[in-house]
């Protein structure tokens, strides 16, 4: 197996992350990498293709390769994926801090959002996500206790979706999402490392089981400089 392209890839990633190749700068030419590392053109191109695939660079035909802002985490907002799965996929150093875990009677607005009948209760879970030492996400989740019968601090620190699917035997089906930009709340300022920002990116979701039952409402609040949403769309005729 030819691992030379992976060695070059890793070296370029290190130089991007340490600032040797800063954001928006143009990378050296393929010929320069060939000469410096003693590699073939095919090997260099394979490394650059992997860099582009993983969001480190953008290649412009006839102009070269340019460094993207790697400090923004490309969260897979369009899909239905747990935070734990996302962290593992992006290989991030992360810590979850439980701020609140309560079983409570919902107010009228939350009861409406979750289609709850009189007397129904919800689990309210508030978690701060610390990535690379910075508290940059506040996740506020509400679960219908009819479906999610019990939650513990340990479950919330690990993966609620993992618990729902593996322990409760429920199948998560689909979600509807809305992305907005909103002013920072007092709660955002208290719990997150806001660092002077006055707005946050907010992803609001309602999540259903495979049979259509609505079991979760969530609000994920992101520091804007660390949030990037990308999606793929194809025009159909």
Protein architecture, described:
Helix content is 29%, strand content 32%. The protein is α+β, with helices and mostly antiparallel strands and 237 residues long. The strands form 3 sheets. The protein has a 6-stranded antiparallel sheet. The longest helix is centred in the N-terminal third of the chain and has 14 residues, at 4-17. The two termini are 42 Å apart. The mean pLDDT is 86.
Overall radius of gyration? 22 Å
| Estimated helix fraction | 25-40%
Relative strand content: 25-35%
**Secondary-structure element string:** HHHEEEHEHEEHHEHEEE
Taking strands numbered 1, 2, ... along the chain, how are they ordered across the largest sheet? 4-5-6-9-8-7
Low-confidence stretches: none
Described by the principal axes of the CA atoms, the overall outline is: elongated
Number of strands: 10
Q: Give the mean pLDDT.
A: 86
**Overall SS class:** alpha+beta
Distance between the termini: 42 Å
**Biggest pleated sheet:** 6 strands, antiparallel
Number of helical regions? 8
């Amino acid at each position: 197996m030819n691992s030379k392209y992976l060695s070059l890839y890793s070296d370029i990633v290190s130089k991007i992350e340490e600032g040797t190749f800063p954001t928006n700068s143009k990378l050296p030419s393929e010929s320069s990498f060939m000469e410096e590392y003693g590699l073939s053109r095919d090997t260099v191109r394979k490394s650059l293709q992997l860099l582009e695939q993983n969001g480190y660079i953008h290649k412009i035909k006839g102009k070269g390769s340019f460094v993207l802002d790697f400090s923004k985490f490309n969260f897979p907002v369009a899909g239905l994926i747990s935070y734990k799965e996302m962290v593992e996929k992006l290989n991030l150093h992360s810590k979850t801090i439980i701020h609140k875990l309560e079983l409570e009677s919902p107010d009228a607005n939350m009861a409406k959002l979750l289609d709850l009948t009189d007397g129904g209760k919800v689990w309210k879970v508030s978690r701060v996500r610390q990535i690379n030492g910075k508290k940059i996400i506040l996740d506020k989740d509400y679960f219908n206790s009819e479906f999610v019968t019990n939650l513990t601090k340990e479950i919330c620190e690990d993966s609620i979706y993992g618990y729902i699917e593996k322990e409760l035997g429920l199948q998560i089906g689909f979600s509807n999402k809305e992305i907005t930009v909103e002013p920072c709340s007092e709660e955002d300022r208290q719990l997150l490392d806001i660092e002077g920002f006055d707005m946050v990116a907010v992803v609001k979701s309602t999540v259903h089981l495979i049979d259509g039952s609505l079991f979760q409402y969530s609000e994920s609040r992101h520091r804007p400089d660390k949030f990037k949403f990308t999606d793929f769309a194809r025009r159909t005729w």
